[in-house]
Write a structure and sequence with these properties.
Blueprint lengths: L3 H4 E2 L11 E2 L6 H9 L5 H7 L4 H13 L1 H17 L13
Helix pairs in contact: 2-4, 3-4
Protein name: DUF433 domain-containing protein
Length: about 100
């Protein structure tokens, strides 16, 4: 039987991610939660669109709910990054000049 640790990677020192994600993918736990619980996608659709095992999607959702403090930390870090880079976004051709 697979354990959650096999499905979800939460290595804060990771070169690829700075938040929990599905092992061997670039799909974050936060993204899965957003798509399924705050969006209009079911877990099977998420798995199909991203070539994931359906179990990985359910493990991501379980991780989100089993680690609420870690997920709040991820969201705070994300908001700080967005705010710090707000004026740097390229939104149109005029921004390229």
């Amino acid at each position: 039987m697979a354990t959650q640790a096999r499905w979800i990677v939460d290595d804060e020192e990771s070169a690829v991610h700075d938040e929990p994600h599905i092992a061997d993918s670039r799909i974050t736990v936060r993204a899965v939660h957003e798509w399924v619980e705050n969006g209009d996608l079911d877990p099977e659709t998420v798995a199909g669109r991203h070539n994931l095992d359906i179990a990985a999607v359910y493990h991501a959702l379980a991780y989100y709910h089993e680690h609420p403090e870690r997920m709040r930390e991820v969201e705070r870090d994300r908001e700080r990054t967005i705010e710090a880079n707000r004026g740097r976004a390229v939104t149109g051709p005029d921004d390229l000049e």
